[in-house]
Amino acid sequence: MPVGAIFAGISAITGIAGGIFGASQADQQNQEAKQAYDEQKRLAQEAADKTNEYNKRVFEVDKQNYYNTRSYEWETALRSWQYNQSIQDYNYLQTVKQYGKSVENTRDQLTYNSLAAMQAYESEQSALNELLTEDRFNRQGMLVQQLQNEGKAALGQAGRSRTKALQASIADMGRNAAIMDASLSSSFEQSQRNMMDISMRKYGTDMQTLASMMIQPERPLDIPAPTQTPERIFIEPMEVLPQAIQAPRQQSVFAPLVSGLSSAAGTLAQVDWASIGKQQYKPPK
Q1: Cα–Cα distance between 106 and 102 in angstroms, integer?
Q2: Scanning 8, 63, 179, 266, which has the fewest C-beta atoms within 10 Å of its C-beta?
Q3: Angle between the N-to-C axes of helices 3-156 and 160-212, in degrees from 0 to 180, rounded to the nearest 10
Q4: How many CB atoms lie within 10 A of CB 19?
């Protein structure tokens, strides 16, 4: 066989072997790329699962914290309302007690004012009575003196002189009686003024006493009970999807085989198989 045909055969075999090796190498690279792709997808899914699990736990913890805080704030508001209401009721009761004491003190003061006024009235009336008693004694003494003067005038004198003496005695008695009447009338008027002054002082003291008395307290309105705010609306966290992993490009396994076969076919096509056949064929002699 010619050397060229041998080299062509070797080249064709080499091309086919190269195509087979290339196809095998491409298949191996495809498998490695697929394994790496599957591993990346697994890791991305694992990361997404962990993120979703964490977000769910955070969501549940936030809800629990919210309800714990809401319950605590509500209980605190109720305790504060009850405490403030009890303080208000206590202060009202204390004010009622103070008002009762003020009414008692006012009643006692008014009673004292009445007793003091009665004592003043009695003192003034007693002074007036003493004055009347003294006036009666004075009038009786004046009448006795008048009688004595008239007796003396009747015994010691006669005629016109006795008459003049009697007239003088009567005139003197009249003057004294007029003076006593004027003094008694003045005393009565002064006593009436004193009585009026006592009444006015009592009235003024009573007015001051009543003005200083506390105003009757009124029960305050109850403190409004607390109300809860509307409950918060929760939205569950959106599920996190795995990270998108781009699929690897697959290398063609048949391309190296086709290339190798094409190269082998081209090499073999260049060999002159006809001449080789003639050289090998030897006709019989």
Answers
A1: 6
A2: 179
A3: 170
A4: 21
